[in-house]
Amino acid sequence: MNIKFKPTALSQCLAAGLVAGMFAAQVQANEDVIQNSFFPYKNEVPSHDGLSVGMTIDQSNVAQFKEVIDPAFYTFIENGWTSITVGETTSFGLNEGYVDATRSSVGKVSLGEQVGEINGWQAGRPFPQEPDANDPRAGEKLAWNYKYGYNWGDSAAISPFYWKYRDMNSGKVERTIKFNFHFLNFKGRVNQEPVPEITPNPSDLFRAIYLQVLDPADVRNTQLLIHRASDDLKRDNSWLYLGFQRRVRRLATGQVTDAFLGSDLMIEDFEGYNGRISDMNWTYKGTRDMLMPFYNHNDLELDTETHQDSDGYQVVAFSGQGGCFPNITWQLRKVYEVESVPVDESHPLSKRVHFVDAQTFTIPRTVSYDRRGSMWKTFTIGQAHPDYHLPKNKGTGVSIDDSFSMIDVQASHCTTGQFKGQVDPEMSPPQMFNVQHLRATGS
Amino acid sequence: MQTKIKGLRFWCCALAGSASLALIPMTTTVAAEDTRVNGYVENATYGREGVGLSKFRNTLQMELEKQAGNVGIFNNLKFNATLRGSYDGVYDLNDDEYGRNAGGAVQLEGTQGFVPHGGGIAPTPFLGFDINENPNDGMVVLGEHLHSQDNGVAFGVPVRPCDKDDRGCIQGYLDKDSNELRFSEFNDRADFIRELYADFDINFDNGNILSTRLGKQQVIWGRTDLFRVLDVINPVDYSRNNIYDELEDIRIPMWILRTDYRMGPTEVFDGFAFDDLNFQMVWNFDKFRPHDIGQCGQPNVILDAGCFFRGMNNLWENGGTVANFAGATPDGGLATDFGPGQIGIRKAHMPSWSLANTQLGLKMEGVYGDLGFSLNALTYRSQLPSLRGGIPAQNGFTGETAVFPSLIAFDIHFPRVNLVGGSLDYYSQGIDTVFRVETSYTSGEEFANTLRKELYSESDVLRYVVGADKSIFIPALNENQAFLFSGQIFGQHILDHEREQRTYGEAGIPDYEHNWTATLLIQGFYMNGRVTPKVITAHDFRAQATAIAPSVDWLVNDQFKLSLGGNFKVGTGARKFDDCRSCNPWDPFTQTPGVAGQQPGESAGLSSYEPLGRFKSGPIGMAQKEDEIQLTARYSF
């Protein structure tokens, strides 16, 4: 039987309503994804039995909090090397432009066939959905969220940036290196003009990092420039200017897994992970509530000696075993645990375990393992809320990298970092990120 | 190797000097946000085999920087000054090797036996010289530290500072007095002002920048270490430590205007764009300066050329005895006394300041994809001396003054050279290795040439360096950090090379037509990069001479660094080449025995170590007897 359906005004109205309803439902679903991804503490904050704001976790009570502390840091507290002061869990809301860019692209981004390929990304967080433990590529999606995160915003500078090399046994500071670091996103820009891309961009760069050593004399004027292509399958181009040679030298990738200027960090460690997605095999290990180094810089007792300037700014102080631990407070936060295993078998590491903050997609804690599988280094990057930092950082929606500690547990040695992070486009113009700038700046 | 310990006092002084650096209370860095004042004090103490103390240099260097910000149309205005002063105590502590008591009486070989300087034959009234004007004192035999006279050319060379003994001091070129040797920066070119310049930018609306540096400065071209293929704008002070110091420390800064037009990422036409593009103009408007090749009597005299020049100038000015000369055959000849103005070096023609004598360079440099590149062009004066024969001199047999063919009587010139070249760097992902290439083609360079009547000829020269850098883990030596391996091969091809076989040997250009030198740097890093052992090896393939320089740097703390190193050579040292004793300049009196029908000015190829063998030995071969232990302590503030 063939029934003819003649549309009536009523049926047309019903169909339109259905479509509109479906669209509205999709919009609502997408908005739920956005809200869940960027505002996880909107309705409630995590809690743990016995844990309260203001308390100190030390050798005496750490066992009670084993579930919310990563294994490396747990051992440090168990050994009596440091303690954790618990702070209130607060929202580190990212820049509105970044959230909006994510909102407009929800569901439009997908992975390519091989690791390192991504389709449909323009700006914002590419995969804001909750990771699915059954998705074999969930870890890779989280890695992309980090790579395309709002880590330092569209551009920023750490000026100055103090690295101290410390003997963890004696506490002796062996070396202090003073840097300026600069970051610039060429693509995926959401806030600072030009948006969304700086042009011309002949090599289709995604991001560039430039740093210059200010002190001490033997490495003064050493400069490093890293160009990261949008195509993740393409290797970084890196150049090093050596002050004592007054020459720009192109770097081989092997040199980015070497100790940078003798520190406990390799270039690949910068910001938690500073390499290609395709250099690693990524595995999502689960979602947990964990204590993470998030705090308000201005509420801390700061280091009065290392840095003084006309802003009255002071850097984070360090204490504990060997002076390797930042004097900060920690928040109980939602964390994704992600494991990265180097594709290259000659890589000095067998794996890294990253504890990725779910709201900001920064990587405040990483534990690295050597080729034998033994714990080698642990990396802490303290995150400061921009509204409680320098006045210029207020309202920028950037989770400010504000202190770091890279501990080589095998060598009982650490490198600590004290930042003056400044979200200020004037400090990182595009002209700074080309090779000629290295030559022009070197003297 | 046996190192001769000349006296305990030297080493006591050396160690005391080094240790005292650690105790010097220094002020901390003067730091305002727009001003920087830094510096260092350093003691470098070297001991040389068979000589004892060869360096006891104490240096104070100050670096001053003042940022002035934006002034009028100029952005990023900045002033920079680097001042350096040093005192090398070797001229006082080891003065019988390098100072006022250096040298002594010499004996010169002849078929009549060894004779003292002044004891050679003088069979005509025009030959012979006044021994009172040119006494047998304060001299060494040319090349004696490296080779015997061996039936070849030799003569006495004065070695004392020019205020103590002015014989052989070439006015305006190699004429340093005691204080200029001791305090090398305090001279009439004000070298204590090592750098003094202003930087400023002009920013254009399109984002391009005109970036200028004006003042006394170093301008560095090229991408390679050690070899100077494109890095030829500033002359170099080889008297400091031969070829082995960092070029930053031994380039001689010049008054230069350097302007870069920085375009950054640039689309040339649709679909073709550079990641970075830069045009540079360099105008070296300073009065010409040659390389400092070291004055005879200094510890570092590259190729021993300074000694050859000084001995030759002394022969011209005062006359002197030359070993194995008259009637020479491969079995030697008679030690002969020449008179003034007959053979030798008359003078150096130092280019005066004029617009025409300034030097101009252009460079286009950029990045295209994974390739870094530069194209370079430079017109400049050769910083190495060229000996041109063909000057009027007296015939030792007739007394006539004229230009004689192939007579070993020279003036020193610094000819105009034009250079074009380029460089590349490329990172190969497949083998994780960076390759660096640098090449130059020059015209106008001059080479000694015993086939020509003026004893020199011009040749175009092709030079290149190919370098590769790779980090390699060697777990047995260091589990945590890779070793840096950096290898380079340097090629030089003299395109208008001339050489012929003659009765007693080859004549022509002593330098090899094609030659290559390889270097390898291996560097490790321990104690968080505070202890860095390294070995630098250089091998000259045709000279068959190798230098090995192991060293360890220890950063005691951010301020204090100790470096202990050595510099050892293996392989062949002195080499022989046509010495022009058989060039027959004063025909028929100087015809070579055993050579039938020899024409005036025609070399029979009779060879010996001096003077041209040095070009076959090269800087490594000529320093075969200069093995050293080196200790340097630096306190930075």
Automatic annotation (TrEMBL), chain A:
Which residues constitute the signal peptide according to the record? 1-29
- Matching Pfam families, A to Z? DUF1329 (PF07044)
Q: Which UniProt keywords apply?
A: Signal
Q: Does the keyword Ribonucleoprotein apply?
A: no
Q: Which InterPro entries match?
A: DUF1329 (IPR010752)
What is the protein's name according to its record? Outer membrane lipoprotein-sorting protein
Say which species the protein is native to.
Marinobacter excellens HL-55
TrEMBL record, chain B:
Supply the alphabetized keyword list.
Signal
Annotated signal peptide: 1-32
Q: Which InterPro entries match?
A: DUF1302
Task: Tell whether Signal is among the UniProt keywords.
Answer: yes
- Show the Pfam families listed in the entry: DUF1302
Q: Give the highest taxon in the source lineage.
A: Bacteria
From the Swiss-Prot or TrEMBL record, give the protein name. Answer: Cox2 cytochrome oxidase subunit 2
Keyword Signal in record: yes
